[in-house]
Amino acid sequence: MLFVKLGKHDKNEVTYRCAYCGSAISHSGLIFEINGAKEHSYVNPSGMKCNFISFLNCENVLTPPELYAEHSWFTGYGWRFLLCGVCMRHLGWKYEAIRKSKFPVGFFGLLIDKISSHTSH
After folding, report:
1. d(Cα 32, Cα 74) in Å, to the nearest integer?
2. Cβ–Cβ contacts within 10 Å for residue 26, how many?
3. Integer angstrom CA distances of residue 35 from 14, 19, 90, 92
4. What pTM value is reported for the model?
5. What is the 3-state secondary structure of the chain?
6. Distance between CA 65 and CA 70 in Å, rounded?
7. Taking every pair of C-alpha atoms in the chain, what is the biggest distance, in angstroms?
8. pLDDT value at position 102?
9. Per-residue model confidence (pLDDT) at position 119
């Protein structure tokens, strides 16, 4: 079963940027819990450990048209590669509901080692 808990808006919001080019990608107000966690750690079929944070939305990103259902870490969701819209580096994945009853219908997983965080005051 998939559980979602929405993040709260904070005055000390953190902006997450592409670690390669510095483009703004998302912010802490869009972080949310899915399956009881905001941060996730899974091993892909190639044996690579993937540590990422779940976000409801991202900006300045691109996704290829291919939606993959196999090897999804979230039941009922397919995934697409997520690229920085400026430098085209891999940042994580966009997850999209395969079943119409899923909420949210889409979310993003940003790899922790591919983003940097900056506090805004």
Report:
1. 14
2. 23
3. 23, 27, 24, 18
4. 0.85
5. CCCEECCCCCCCCEEEEECCCCCEEEEHHHECEECCECEEEEECCCCCEEEEEEECCCCCEECCCCCECCCCCCCCEEEEEEEECCCCCEEEEEEEECCCCCCCCEEEEEEHHHEEEEECC
6. 15
7. 42
8. 77
9. 79
What tokens were used for 84?
Answer: 């920085």
Do the beta carbons of residue 54 and residue 38 sit within 8 Å? yes
Q: How far is CA 42 from the centre of its chain?
A: 13
Both tokens of 20, joined, read 């390669």
Q: What is the pLDDT of residues 25-80, one digit of tens each?
A: 999 999 999 988 999 999 888 888 999 999 999 999 999 999 999 989 898 899 99
Residues 103 and 53: their CA atoms lie apart, in Å, by: 17
Cβ 119 vs Cβ 102: under 8 Å: no
Cα–Cα distances in angstroms (integers) from residue 99 to residues 17, 18, 78, 79, in the given order: 31, 31, 10, 13
Identity of the residue numbered 82? L
